[in-house]
Task: structure prediction
Amino acid sequence: MKARLAKIRRHTLETQISLRLNLDGRGKSAVKTGIPFLDHMLTLFAKHATVDLYLRCNGDLDVDAHHTVEDCGIALGQAVAVALGDKRGIRRYGHGFHPKNPFTGEAFVPMDECLARCVIDFSGRPFLVWRGLNQFSQKKITDAEKNQDISSVFRFGLAREFFQSFANEARCNLHLELLYGDEPHHIVEALFKAFARAVDAARRYDTRIAGLLPSTKGKL
Result:
């Protein structure tokens, strides 16, 4: 099987990003974005998606974290799209973990008091569903009040910016949902872990359709 690799360099007036991705890796990562919480989320994404990820980003954190988070989502989405290639033989659809109830097909990821769900389809059509999460948009997961370091600020709403950017560039349907929960850190971590497991499932080869596209249209 041909290695599914991607290298992305994205340089703008706001961010400079270098990214390498091995879609068939072992969960290794080296991530440095200047935002510790984002580093943590991307590191656990690599671990639970079982991909190898190298990412360096120098962004305008003196302005705020928005450009860095958004552009990292763009770069990761572009990398996944490149690594997937023509998508022949992939399962295409993925969800967080194996279904708790195989008759409903529901897939959930717990994180302490919260329960989150992610479903993904590498359909070629970008769309993000962000359900049950908007009430947390202005919550701060990390705060700069004590040390005045703006790079330590991560608003909950930035997670949506990341996933929207990823969906746009990977050209996938990405459905993220909170069933219940109230701690913003736990909720975002559950979302990233569910996202990772969904990517892991959807990118896998299905030997039954080796060389074929999982689409009746003949194109993804």
Remarks:
- Residues 184-203 form the longest helix (20 residues).
- The mean pLDDT is 89.
- Residues 5-209 form a domain with the Ribosomal Protein S5; domain 2 fold (CATH 3.30.230.40).
- Helices lie at 36-49, 66-84, 157-170, 184-203.
